[in-house]
Design brief:
Elements (H helix, E strand, L loop, with lengths): L2 H27 L9 E7 L5 H10 L14 E8 L6 E3 L11 E3 L5 H35 L2
Antiparallel strand pairs: 1-2, 3-4
Helix pairs in contact: 1-3
Length: 147
């Protein structure tokens, strides 16, 4: 993996973790919105790093037995899924979103969970920003050596 590959991987991760932060911010903003369903971001690895995935990659390279294949690594933002837990039912017969019995469904967002998840996403964002900055510094130093 070259310096530019690490910068590209860091830049992709910055986009992914930025989207994670956006999803959690939207959840927190809709904490008191009736019928709002919490969204959960889904991340997937670029390469299959499981034992089964590594063995499948190694069997394709018969002459490279015992060596690990080159894996690019990284993460993808695969979208969001809705949290299946139901919000609390609240009796408000005059509310426009009330059902036939006069109940509305409160948001199922737990502020503490989304704040904690947003902090984890922020730390991942900061770590990848540091990766990009370190790789940039390494590239600049390599250019200075050539002078």
């Amino acid at each position: 993996m070259g310096i530019m590959d690490s910068i590209d991987m860091g830049a992709k991760a910055l986009q992914v973790h930025g989207k994670r932060i956006d999803v959690h911010a939207k959840n927190i903003a809709n904490l008191d919105t009736p019928n709002y369903v919490r969204k959960i971001p889904v991340l997937t690895a670029v390469d299959d790093l499981s034992f089964h995935g590594l063995m499948n990659n190694m069997k394709e390279d018969v002459f490279g037995v015992g060596t690990l294949p080159y894996l690019q690594g990284g993460v993808n933002f695969s979208g969001v899924v809705e949290d299946p837990t139901l919000g609390q039912k609240i009796y408000k017969p005059g509310h426009p979103d009330a059902d036939a019995d006069g109940y509305i469904r409160a948001s199922n967002v737990n502020a503490m969970v989304d704040i904690a998840d947003a902090l984890v996403a922020q730390r991942a964002y900061e770590a990848n920003l540091a990766l990009v900055n370190i790789s940039k510094t390494m590239a600049q130093r390599a250019l200075e050596i050539g002078k």
